[in-house]
Amino acid sequence: MSALRVSIQMPLVSVIIPSYNEQATIRLLLDAIYAQTFPRENLEVIIADGHSEDRTRDEIAAFLRDAPDLNVRVVDNDARNIPAAVNCGIRASHGDVIVRMDAHSRPYPDYIERCLQALKDVRGQNVGGVWEIHPGSDSWVARSIAIAAAHKLGVGNAGYRVSADASEVDTVPFGAFHRSLVDEIGYFDESLLSNEDYEFNARIRKSGGRIWLDPEIRTIYYSRATLAELAQQYWRYGYWKWHMLRRYPDTLRLRQALPPLFIISLAGFSVLAIFHKLFGFLGLIELAVYLCSLILVGIVAAVKERKVYILSGLPLAIMTMHLSWGSGFLWSLMTSLGAKRHG
Question: N or C end: fewer C-beta atoms under 10 angstroms in the chain?
Answer without folding.
Answer: C
